């Protein structure tokens, strides 16, 4: 089965490279959860070496190919993290500025870590988690978005507007979801933003006393991020 998949991959690489020699190809090796970590590393190294060697021979080139291999599984968040890295490569000229904005947000709000997600998926565009040493923080933050989304479908309030207040901007802001999920010592603050973005923060519970400041910093962060994407 692996040989068949490798053959189809080589056909794809050949066709794509003939069309665009500068193309970057992302390869996802799925269902690796059945293997131990050592076997996963061995499989990745062997496949990467064989595919690159055979592709170069078939393309009759010695130049390095732009091939990236990712190990994924349906039993964890690895596939979403891999897709996140691919998306970040597509906006690589904007990502450093957004990461710097997240660092400023964390510093000014005493936040341990922050992620900027696409609201309808578990793909994150930027992250700053320099101050957090705990593992699986991405898993917690991405799951928090899913929990808030599902709960909001059940408990979404019915908001009635007068004709004077029924402006498009007001409606957009009032429909944005936010929630605080309490953990043992920390909490996760999920704030939906306009344009299908969501920011997720992890911070100490004691820092919620400064929530007004955090909300102000989030609003400033969004305005700066929006200007970067629209520049």
UniProtKB/TrEMBL annotation:
Pfam short name (any one): Gtr1_RagA
GO molecular function: GTP binding; GTPase activity
Gene Ontology cellular-component annotations: Gtr1-Gtr2 GTPase complex; lysosome; nucleus
Domain of life: Eukaryota
Leader sequence segment: none
InterPro entries linked: Gtr1_RagA (IPR006762), P-loop_NTPase (IPR027417)
Keywords: GTP-binding, Nucleotide-binding
GO biological process: cellular response to starvation; negative regulation of autophagy; positive regulation of TORC1 signaling
Family indicated by similarity: Belongs to the GTR/RAG GTP-binding protein family.
Protein name, entry field: Gtr1/RagA G protein conserved region containing protein, putative
Coiled-coil region: none
Natural source organism: Angomonas deanei
């Amino acid at each position: 089965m692996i040989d068949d998949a490798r053959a189809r991959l080589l056909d794809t690489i050949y066709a794509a490279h003939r069309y665009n020699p500068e193309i970057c190809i992302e390869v996802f090796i799925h269902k690796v959860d059945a293997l131990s970590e050592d076997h996963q590393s061995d499989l990745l190294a062997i496949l990467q070496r064989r595919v690159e060697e055979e592709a170069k021979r078939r393309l009759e080139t010695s130049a390095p190919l732009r091939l990236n291999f990712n190990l994924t599984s349906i039993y964890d968040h690895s596939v979403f993290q891999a897709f996140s890295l691919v998306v970040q490569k597509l906006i690589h000229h904007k990502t450093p500025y957004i990461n710097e904005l997240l660092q400023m947000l964390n510093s000014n709000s005493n936040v341990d870590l922050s992620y900027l997600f696409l609201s309808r998926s578990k793909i994150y565009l930027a992250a700053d988690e320099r101050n957090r040493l705990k593992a699986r923080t991405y898993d917690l933050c991405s799951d928090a978005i899913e929990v808030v989304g599902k709960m909001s479908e059940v408990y979404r309030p019915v908001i009635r507007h007068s004709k004077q207040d029924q402006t498009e901007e007001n409606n957009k802001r009032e429909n944005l979801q936010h929630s605080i999920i309490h953990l043992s010592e920390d909490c996760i603050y999920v704030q939906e933003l306009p344009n299908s973005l969501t920011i997720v923060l992890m911070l100490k519970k004691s820092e919620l006393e400064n929530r007004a400041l955090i909300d102000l910093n989030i609003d400033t962060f969004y305005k700066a991020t929006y200007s970067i994407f629209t520049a």
